[in-house]
Amino acid sequence: MPVELICIRCPRGCRLRVDDDLKVSGNSCPRGYEYGIKEVTAPERILTSTVAIRGASLPLCPVKTSAPIPKGRLFDGMDEIAKIEIEAPVRAGDVIEKDFLGLGGIDLVATRSFAKEGK
Ligand code: SF4
Q1: Nearest 5 degrees, angle CA 111-CA 113-CA 116?
Q2: Over its length of 119 residues, how does the chain's per-residue pLDDT go in tens digits?
Q3: The CATH number of the domain where 63 resides is what?
Q4: 82 FRET partner, CA 20 to 30 A, in 38, 62, 73, 74?
Q5: Residue in 5, 17, 35, 39 to alter for ligand 1 test, most ligand atoms within 8 A of Cβ
Q6: Residue 119 belongs to some domain of the structure
Q7: What is the pTM of this model?
Q8: Which structural domain range is residue 79 located in?
């Protein structure tokens, strides 16, 4: 059954159609072709969330994966993130967990900096 989707690789937002034989139409450039194939065969997403942080001005530090991960592993990722607690200070871009979920070099990184509070 054909799949219809919007390409999110640029703001133009082309309407794509991917047929059962993986023929892509509606794309205005090769990136849309790649996106259509990937989305139908092995969809991925960047996981964004928060981890607990001690010694900072707020109790949670925003994090994200350094690259998209398979959509089917998002809940595993959330379970893993729920177990993590870090200590301030932290800088945006710091690796919080290396090789997150053993996905071959994708790390979990902080997306906000926090100074150590109270010292
Ligand atoms: S197909 Fe190309 S031009 Fe169209 S939204 Fe995707 S990246 Fe942009």
Answers
A1: 145
A2: 899 999 999 999 999 999 999 999 999 999 999 999 999 999 999 999 999 999 999 999 999 999 999 999 999 999 999 999 999 999 999 999 999 999 989 999 999 999 999 75
A3: 3.10.530.10
A4: 38
A5: 35
A6: no
A7: 0.84
A8: 48-110
